[in-house]
Structure formats: structure tokens, C-alpha cells
Amino acid sequence: MSVAPTPPRSSCPGSSRASTPDSSTAKDVDGRDKPGHDRRRGWAWLKRGAIVSAVAVVVAVGGLFAYAVSLGPLPLDEARQTSVTVVDRHGKLLRAFAMADGRWRLPVDAATEVDPRYLKLLFAYEDKRFWSHHGVDPLAVGRAALQLVSHGRIVSGGSTITMQLARLMEPRRQRSLSAKLRQMVRAVELEQTLSKQQILDLYLALAPYGGNLEGIRAASIAYFGKEPKRLSLAEAALLVALPQSPEHRRLDRHPDVAREARDRVLARMVEDRVVSAEDAAQARAVPVLRQRKPMPILAPHSADQAVATDKESALIRLTLDAGMQRALETLARDRAAALGPEISIGIVAVDNASGEVLAHVGSADYFDDRRAGQVDMTRAVRSPGSTLKPFIYGLAFEDGFVHPESLIDDRPVRFGAYAPENFDMTFQGTVPIRKALQLSLNVPAISLLDRVGAARLTSRLKQAGTELVLPKDEVPGLAMGLGGVGVKLIDLVQLYSGLPRLGSVLPLREIASSGNDKRESLRLMDQVAAWQVGSVLLGTPPPENAARSQIAFKTGTSYGYRDAWSVGFDGRMTIGVWVGRPDGAPVPGMIGRVAAAPVLFDAFARSGHLRAPLPKAPRGTLVASNAKLPLPLRRFRPAGDLMQAGDDKALRIQFPLNGSRIDAVSEASIGALPVKVAGGVLPMTVMVNGLSVGELDGRRQRLIAPPGPGFVRLTVMDAAGAADTVVVRIQ
């Protein structure tokens, strides 16, 4: 009997003993996992890993964000604080003031104020990927970590320039992982807040260089005596090396250590092929200086005044020119030393067109106590001597009763109790007005002032921006023509700058304006009168050993030899010089022509500017010899000589009345403005604003074309030299 074979187990789904392979037991015929099942399990693990990683990243980012929040805001305001700096019109440093704690920290613009070669070395040595990373350089951090593990010590740091800036903003003495983490977080914040250029500028302003020096500008000035705009390779490498260990590498204490650090930077640059071996060898041969240089102090009086005026700005720009300022300070110091131990000198140079001060020397030596160096003598009130005479002559020209070629008497004369005398106690007799001013004769000047009026001269100078200081309870008098008032050198220069501007004075400016210039021109005198004064002063004989040039100038000496002055101008500049003792003590024999005029001519020569001619004569200027002048202009007669025997014969303008207002429209209907005169001796000349418009007829009247709207000065002079003047307003 045969036995039937056992049937195989059912694989039907409904069988309770069915064997369904799963992911944990499915095998192939060789007992290995099936490939499809293996892939599914791998994807599952990847998903789990991704989730875990994402959670970890989120937790880390959240933790870093929370950590960053816990650190508080970046201390940017404190980091941006710098020394108050005063610069010239071109941005060159004139003077810097140390911060309250004594540190020197100067602002810097890396794009324009730092040598590109230094920046190239800095990036190559400190942060090769500065322009591409976001505060932290992963490659640099990884390299530093690998070197730490392989060498067992720190070989190179992983800090970026941004991280170093973060450390400078929040200094930490200890070096730890937590401090490094803080720098990284702060670096990322800085990159999110500032541009790369701003980060670089801030780093270059804060980087330590030993002692109280912070920033590349302070270091370059203190160690090399120059701005970092142009550095040698040796200087650039040294400035790259110093911030690594600023106190240990201080040039004034450890120059050998500083030199070794510089040479290591150069060697590294050769390895990285940033510089050639030949250039590096030449740089290593350069010795390291062992002393710091003083911070520059140019125009100290101007800087002091500017800081006192502008107490908010950290950077103050003046209109001065650093080159001219340095040259004139040297000139003042050398000349004062030659004149005596207690003599000081003040110099002011002004651009005529803009009214901007180009140089301001307040004393011969700011640090010389014997010369009261810290007293700004350009702003001290002193007696001007004869320096106001040109303005007396200018008003006389404007009034039309004299011309530069008119004759005037220089002889003993008395004005009440006042009898002026010339400086040399002699008299020249009858001389042309031109020569009287060039020789600074006193009697002609006082005679003209008597006609012009001391009060009117004072008013006109005040109108031009100069306040004359009179003795207590005194009123303007004839003595002011010879220095009997007080004036400041800077105001006197402002007045003289109005002469090459043809009678228009622009108030001086020393602090550069960032907005619109709102200064308005002030009236000094008529154009023709200003040109005539300049033409006369241009012919003044120069001081001894000085070449005749295109400089119009005037000198002055105060009573008792206390003040010596000289003010001059050409078509471009006006320069004023004061010489004397700050305490007002007399200096026997010190006169303007000998003490001040040579300084003036040297100042023009050292200014660095080419001489410019004076303006041409304005239209309508009468240029003629004495013989061809109208008869009343040929000779000046003092006011007392103009009186006639009787009042009925005295010259008097009957119409228009002085101070009257005339409607130009109504006068236009008759085509002219009538001028009528009583008394006087024919022929009579009529002048409008100093210009001759013809002679009166036999009836002592004339019709003249009415000038434009505004104030008009009408003057009538007769054959005897008598004159009368009225001022009317055309409207």
C-alpha cells in the first residue's frame, strides 16, 4: 500500500498558518535581505536623521538667537566715538584733541585715506575672505581647529576682521570658548547691521597700536609723522603686525620685538606670494624708529575757536589751507625770534573772492609763555596807526572833492586844539594826493577826514562790518585818522579785502559751511573810489630789499611804538600782519615799514599762490593828469578856506534838497532831474556819485539824467574849490 505524499502548506490569505514575509524576516534564497526592503529601511533612517538634524538646527539657531538677545544691542554709539579733529579745506589734519580718557582715536575712511598696499597685506594676513563671508569664516575656523588638534597648541586664529572688531567693541581679557562664541555672534550681528566698508572703517579706527594710540591714523601719525594714505612696504607690514600684541610690540618701548613681528608678516606675505622676496628683503632692511612723534598742532587758535563754537561735531572743517598755514607759522616764529624774546606776530590771509580765511596765525609760538603764545593777537584790540588812512581817502574820492592827482598842502595846520604832525616831524609842502597817501603823510589825511567827517567814517566802517573801539566816553574825532581808536587785525583785513573787490566787503568765514552760504556783501565805498585807493597803494615803495611787485599795501605804527602793522592785497588775496608785544609795552624803534612790511612781503612769497593783478578800472573812472582835471579837482582846499565873505556868496545846492525822495516816474516826464545852485564861483562842475556829468550854465542850474533807483550823491564844485553835497533817494 503506497503512502500519499504530504501536501504543501496553503499560502492562501485565509490560511491561519500562512507565512507572509515582512521587513524583518524577508530573505532571499541565500538567506540575505531583499534589496528593495533594504532601501525602504534606509530611507526611513534618513528621514529620522533629517528630522533630528532639523530639530537640532532649529534648537541651535533658537539658542543662538536667544543668546544674541541676551547680549543686548551692539555698542555702536560708543565705538563710533572719536577724538575731535579739525581739518583744513582739503581734509588735511590741522589738530586733534585727545578723548576724555587720553586716547587718540581718529576717524578714518579706508577707501580714500589708507594706502591700498596696507589693505592688501591686512586682508592677506588677517582675513582673506573678508569681502565674502558673513562675519564668521568657516574655513578659517576649521583650519584653526585642525591645527589645534594636530599641534596641541594654537597655530593660527580663526578670527575674521569682523570678529576682531566685535572683540574691540566689547573687550574680554580671558580667552575662552564662550568669549569666542560671543565674538562670532556679535560678528554676525555686525554684518547684518553695517556694510563691509563701514566694518572696515570702524576696525581701522579701533585697532590698538600701543599706549593710547587707537586706529591706523593715530598710529601712522605718531610713529611715522604722516597720514596712512601713502605707506612704504615696511611701514604697512609694521602696522599689520602691531595690533596682534600692541603693548608688547610698542615701538617706543620694544622696537626689536616690533621689528621681529614686522619681519614675520613679510615672510608670510612672501610665502603667500603677496609680495616678492626682493621687496620683502628691502623692507626688512628698514630700521624701526624708537620714538613717537607729536600729534600735529596747526592753527591752534583757530582750532580752539572752532571747538568752542561747535561743541557737537567730532569733525570740524575749516577754510584754512594747511600748507600755507604751516609756512606762515614758520615765518612768524622765525621773524619774532629775530625781533626779540617777547615779540609776537599775528598774520591773517584771506581769499578776496570768497572771504574765506586761508591762514590764521594767532601768535609767534602757541607754547611760548614769554610771548603769551596762547593769546590770539589777530583778535586783540590794538591801535591801528595809519592803517585807516586809505578809507579816509576812499570816502574823499567817493565824495568827489579830490582825485588821486589833485594837489594838497602838507604844512602846519591846527584844527581847534589839535595840530597833527608827520611821523618824521617834517612837512612836504604841496604834494599830489597819490604821494600823500603813499608816504602816509598825517596832515593831508586829517585835512581830508575833516571834510569827510569822523562820524561818517566810523559809520561807514561799521556798515562794512568793523566796529571801531573808542576810548571810554569818547566820540569819533580827527585823531582816529592817526590811530586814536582800537581795531582787530582780522577786522582790518576784512576791510582791506573790500578794496580789490571794488568796494564790496564779504564777511570773513573760517569754519567751512556745509549748507548754503548766507553771507551778504557789505558796502565799503563806491567802485571807482575803491579802485583809485588800490591804484595809489599799488605804487607804495616796497620795504628795503623787497622787489617791487603787484602788491598794494599800507603800513602803520601806533603811538609809542606799541604796534606795527602792514596790510596788503593783490587780485587774489589780502594779508594782514601785526607785530608787537602782547602786553602792550612799547618797543622803541619798531615801525610798520621796518618790522611788519617785510613779514607781509614774505607771507605773499610763501603763500604758494601766484600773484594776480588788481581789477581793471571801472567804467567811468577819470584817469588824467592834474593839468587835465576839472578845475575844482586840481587842488584840495580845507573846509575853512571854502567860506566866502558873505553867506549870500557861499555855494549851496538849492534843489534837490538833502535827504529828499524823488519819484523817478514823475521826473521822467520832463526827461531830466534839475540841479539848482545858489552862490559859488563859475564855472561849476556837477558830479553824480563822484563822476562828472558836466558844468552848470550861467543861471547856476543843469538838467541831469536821473540815475537808477537808490541813493544818489550829488556834488557841485565851483572854480574856487568850494563844494556842496546832497544825498537824495530815487524811487
From TrEMBL:
Keywords: Carboxypeptidase, Glycosyltransferase, Hydrolase, Membrane, Multifunctional enzyme, Protease, Transferase, Transmembrane, Transmembrane helix. Residues 346-544 form the Penicillin-binding protein transpeptidase domain. It comes from Rhodopseudomonas pentothenatexigens. Its EC number is 2.4.99.28. Residues 1-38 are annotated as: Disordered. This is peptidoglycan glycosyltransferase. One of its GO terms (cellular component) is outer membrane-bounded periplasmic space. One of its GO terms (biological process) is proteolysis. Residues 646-728 form the Penicillin-binding C-terminal domain. Residues 12-24 have a biased composition (Polar residues). Pathway: Cell wall biogenesis; peptidoglycan biosynthesis. Gene3D superfamilies: Biosynthetic peptidoglycan transglycosylase-like, DD-peptidase/beta-lactamase superfamily.
